[in-house]
Amino acid sequence: MRQERINASELNLKDKVVYINRVAKVVKGGRRFSFSALVVVGNEAGIVGIGKGKAAEVPDAIRKAIDKAKKNLIAFPLKDTTVPHRIEYKYGATKIVINPAPKGTGIIAGGPARAVFEVAGVQDIVAKVLGSHNPFNSVRATVGALSRLKEPSSVAKLRTRTADLEASEENQSVGEEEKVL
Predict the structure, then answer these.
(1) 3-state SS class at 30
(2) Cα distance between residue 20 and residue 35, in whole Å
(3) In this predicted model, what pLDDT tens digit does every residue of 149-176 receive, in sequence order?
(4) What are the φ and ψ backbone dihedral angles of 35, each rounded to 5 degrees?
(5) Spatial distance between the Cα atoms of 76 and 63, rounded to a whole number of angstroms
(6) Separation of alpha carbons 130 and 50, rounded Å
(7) Residues 6 or more apart from 155 whose CB is under 8 A from it?
(8) pLDDT above 50 (res 144)
(9) Can you tell me the mean pLDDT for 73-99?
(10) Listing from the earlier edge strand, what are the strands of the sheet with 94-100?
């Protein structure tokens, strides 16, 4: 069930750096440092993407991460300023629980999950990250949960049987004909 790719050039995307990690590689002459950056991008209206970039300098790592995030965009349904329903999702050792919240609540979520919600356009939400608090896994768990959100109308359509609907419509039309006679 792969979604079609979202064209990032048509969107006004906002990016946010979630985490920058300095990595040291020990070589003969000493330590060689490089950087990895975790970035989330979103249009603040239900589209979000994540990217990880690695480079010798921080700005290059951030630029690479933004480019990758723009290639990995996903869309999810919003209900006003929150999500349509509660969802739990597990990625690796990280589990996230996302609950919709009434208008005016704000974003009640920790670090990496908060960054995802801010760029995604979710303004009222309560979320809790359980298990590992690794920022890479927390962001992936959050985006995974958002990608599994369903539109209420599509769920209603799945729950109603078409045969039952057709039968009830036929019964109503037969009843109306008898009333006319």
Answers:
(1) strand
(2) 7
(3) 888 788 788 888 655 555 555 566 555 5
(4) -130, 145
(5) 25
(6) 20
(7) none
(8) yes
(9) 91
(10) 87-91, 94-100, 125-131, 107-108
